[in-house]
Amino acid sequence: MRWLDGLARRLRPQAQDAEEISVAEQMAAAYDAAGRGDHAAALVIWTPLAHAGVARAQNNIGACFSEGLGVERDADLAAKWLSASAQAGDPVGRRNLAAAYFKGEGVEQDYGRAAELYRAAAERGDAPAQDMLSWMLLEGEVAVPDYAEARRLAEAAAAQGIAPSMTRLGMIFHNALGVERDAKAAADWWAKATVRGDADGQAMLGAALHLGSGVTRDPVAALAWLIRARAGGSALADPFLAPARAVLAPDEIAEAEWRAAAPLEAAP
């Protein structure tokens, strides 16, 4: 296996045999290649590991086929590798296979199966899976609504820094979904999401600042967050932009626009 010999020379010059290279070292080298955008090189490393039963390597190959990274996009092959990873118990593999079932890519669309896989990954502490399952249980369109469980999962994901879950928790308190309505708790969660760049959280914090709901009213900061949210693609900002502008003088609007264009760490 010439690729492995070459890898041995790069990772451990003193190595005389490819077997001296650990799986962890090979995975690290593959991630380094992927981080440079060289997914083809990463796949050269992941492929034999995947065939040897390394679940995360199987997931990574599936993800590459799913996104067309280093290979032609192939939903069927993606599902094959993700299924192998999920069956081996990898939480990321389960989450990515859940997404395939949710979208119907490479497998027949099955929201129930998607929810099962998201839950299996969530129970292993996978934050994106916790976030997605929380959304499914809160929206109630593709799963039976369960506000208490949606909140629990969102809190678990938020604790790991997932900003959309922070925004969702704000909505739970704002709309009294399985909890008492708490405008301050809602605004606090939206504030946490805004500094992590979540556009919907920014829109909702802007609306709260405009209305003085759960926070002290601040028209300039409100418009700044709403402008930033809209630029980030949040349609939630649209109903509030014109009213927020209407209460400000031209110099205040200019100040809000300047704040909205500033780097996020310097935002109000």
In short:
The protein is an all-alpha fold. The protein has 15 helices and no strands.
Structural class: mainly alpha
Looking at the structure, what is the overall shape? elongated
The arrangement of helices and strands along the chain is HHHHHHHHHHHHHHH
- The percent range for strand residues is under 5%
How would you characterize the largest beta sheet? none
- Unreliable runs: 1-19
- What's the overall average pLDDT, rounded? 92
Q: Between the first and last Cα atoms, what is the distance in angstroms?
A: 56 Å
The percentage helix is 55-70%
Radius of gyration: 23 Å
Total strands: the figure is 0
Helical region count?
15
Task: Please tag this protein with its features.
single chain, 268 residues, mainly alpha, 15 helices, elongated, disordered N terminus
Question: How would you describe what is shown here?
Answer:
It is a single chain. The chain is mainly alpha-helical and 268 residues long. It has a domain at 183-268. It contains 15 helices and no strands. It has helices at 2-11, 23-35, 39-51, 55-67, 75-87, 91-103, 111-123, 127-139, 147-159, 163-174, 183-194, 199-211, 219-231, 238-246, 250-261. Helix 10 runs antiparallel to helix 11 (183-194). It starts with a helix and ends in a 7-residue tail after the last helix. Residues 1-19 have low confidence and may be disordered.
